[in-house]
Design goal:
The chain is mainly α. The chain has one domain. Helix content is about 85%, strand content about 0%. Helix 1 packs across helix 3 and helix 3 packs antiparallel against helix 4. The chain is globular, with a radius of gyration of 13 Å. The two termini are about 10 Å apart.
Length: about 90
Amino acid sequence: MTAFDQAADKAYQTLTDIEISADAGDDDKRFFASYLLGHVSLIAADGGESAESLTRRVNESLDDAFAVDRLSDQDKLGIRSLWQAISADIGREL
């Protein structure tokens, strides 16, 4: 299993855990996690070499999506913040 695969699995598991365990009143966090799950899943399916490439490709995917999605600036910021926290954790763990 490559570092990319390990990072993708860790990101997917972390996002799934967040989605499942988010408090009932924390719909934003649940939305951010599910939004990111879609991006991570698509990128993971293409494969890669390193954890850094996963992070870079998710960031690029978010840039592309945010250019056309009608998300609020607050949602975009929340999604980016969650991804930054998860990708930082992954980098420390691998």
